[in-house]
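Session log. Operator J.P. requested a structure for one protein chain; no other inputs attached. Running the standard single-chain path with token output.
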Amino acid sequence: KIHIISLLVILALLITIGILRVRLFIQKQKAKDKELQIARQAQDLNQKYQLVLKASNMMTWIWDVKEARLECNNIYLTQRSIRDKGIDGQFCMSADGIHPEDLEQMQDAINKLIAGESISIDEEIRYLDDTGLEYTWIEIFAIVGKTDPEGKPAYLTGGTTLINQRKKMEQELRDKEKIEESNRLKSAFLANMSHE
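Structure written below.
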């Protein structure tokens, strides 16, 4: 009798262990399925991100604040000239390319972001083109990407897009409005003179 009870207890333990192993296997399989689903979602989001970047003609970048080093994505807006390129498509951030009249504005924006006085940068500045002879308008967006243990920005992440065409259209519109205003004033003056 004792032998049969011992066998039943051992059998019950083996069944319990089997059930626990099946449950553990199912949990692991669900975790793998979840990881696979997350990986697929990340891949889908990455494809959408790349499409948006391509459509907007934006160059994304990460700036290591301490090293003053800027790493850009492979699709660079203007195919920077050799003077700006370094190893593996990286180039050092240089204020030399910023138009002198825009330099202080850009430095202030970066300093405010680093000091925590603002949450982002959205600046329109002029930057030297590929030839290094002419300036082109660009718009720069940036946020703090990561902070160091002391809470200071370790790197900024952002994007840059060419806005030369937009700036030209804005100037043409302002010129057109000035001409229309001038013509209106001239017509009013002539009308006023003809009455006198």
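Operator note: The beta strands are 58-64, 69-72, 90-92, 121-128, 135-147, 153-162.
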